[in-house]
Amino acid sequence: MNIENIWNKFLLCIKERVNTLSFNTWFKDSKLIELNEEHAIIIVPTIAHKKHLAESYIDIINEIFNEITGTNFNIEFLLENEYYKDNNINTSNIDIEDIGVPFNSPEKANLNPDYTFENFIVGESNRFAQATALAVAENPGKMYNPLFIYGNSGLGKTHLMHAIGNYIIKNSNKRVLYVTSDQFINDFLGLNKRDKEGTNFDYIDLFKDKYRNIDVLIIDDIQFLGNAPKTQNEFFHTFNTLYDDKKQIIISSDSSPDDLKHLEDRLRTRFNWGLKVNIFPPDNELRKEIIRKKMANMDFSRHMSEDAIDYIANTCNSDVRSLEGALTRVCAYSTIFFEEEITLELAVDALKGTISSSTNFKNDIQKIQKVVSEYYNVTVEDLKSKKRVSNIAFPRQIAIYLSRNLTDESFPRIGMEFGGRDHSTIIHSCDKIQKEIKNNKQLENIIEEIKKQLV
Ligand code: ADP
Ligand code: MG
Description:
Blueprint: H1 3-17, H2 20-27, E1 31-35, E2 39-44, H3 47-69, E3 74-79, H4 80-85, H5 106-109, H6 127-138, E4 147-150, H7 157-171, E5 176-180, H8 181-189, H9 201-212, E6 216-220, H10 229-244, E7 248-253, H11 265-271, E8 275-278, H12 284-296, E9 303-304, H13 306-315, H14 320-336, E10 341-342, H15 344-351, H16 355-358, H17 365-376, H18 380-384, H19 390-406, H20 411-417, H21 423-439, H22 441-454
Parallel strand pairs: 2-3, 4-7, 4-8, 5-6, 6-7, 9-10
Antiparallel strand pairs: 1-2
Helix pairs in contact: 1-3, 6-7, 12-13, 12-14, 13-15, 14-15, 17-19, 19-21, 20-21, 21-22
The protein binds adenosine-5'-diphosphate and magnesium ion.
């Protein structure tokens, strides 16, 4: 009989002998991990399990093991991390006071409790990152070590890392520490400080305790270590110590390890040991999902029209942070003006003036307007105005044509961006330029010229 069969049989027997609550609390999540001639090791979820099983259930456990195998075993209960670190833990060392007291807390771990897996919205662009993050959270130290998450700013790296930490703290008594690389640098610089006697032993101990005496180290924005060569050396040693002890390390950066040119080779090599995960900008689908879910979670209830959702999702298309910022602004705007419904007009008004700074998308309508107006030496306001003089009307038609051809925007949305024009006017402008290009080589060249400036 293999070890798994024995444990399954054990569970069936013990289920008969204890009540459901006891079974679910004390046995369901425990597991027989080792069984040799006279020694059995059972891994249990918390220190409370260790103590309680050893004191209150040991007789019945022995009895059932004997029934199943015909042998008497010395049974030892261990936490998962203890099992992998050291099989000789003495359970009697555990202080009764420890039981029921969380070993770790979000504050001590430096975690933001608001960043959880539950409120991380998943789409194609971040699905892999989210899945690996959860796998690590469920199995720290064993799945992917280190886990290296990279991608542009505002895509959810910090959120995911806190989610891992919060999950681990909630579901185990592992010690978690989240720091930014700036914090690590600051702590390291403290090592050079001296007290009046010229020593700083206390500080060294504190530093070592903080960074070595943990089960999970989460370090955010590692690219900033590039400016601190001495700290890199210390981080190298911290990394090695934790890694050798099978402690989980989670790192984030704005670029892949291979592109972190200011970091020592030996660090980059180590970052490549585990799993590298790229997190991508949200696609349109995910942006809309984020808007809907975040709206649903807000304290006040406001209905947002579909075209307003489209507008915000299309305008804030680079990252989630700017999307959140736009949403907050639109909602604040609706509150100020006591609007019950967030319409497209309201969203456009609310985001006026913020758009160019919050987006850096190539073919955005605002960008097209800017480039075309500069090319023809008119203002963006002119393009949006009702003026019909040809030196303004013609560039306007070109800008409309480009907006239609270079973005995914609808005719009504383009009309909105060009001073609230009717969508038939927009269609007319597009057709007109389209026809003219065919017969006018010079215009074709001009359009190509403008397109180049949009890249
Ligand atoms: P990064 O660390 O990559 O710069 P953050 O984790 O700080 O990005 O994310 C920026 C903001 O966007 C945070 O408020 C975060 O909660 C939010 N955010 C990012 N991605 C998501 C997501 N998939 N679901 C919900 N909120 C997200
Ligand atoms: Mg971050």
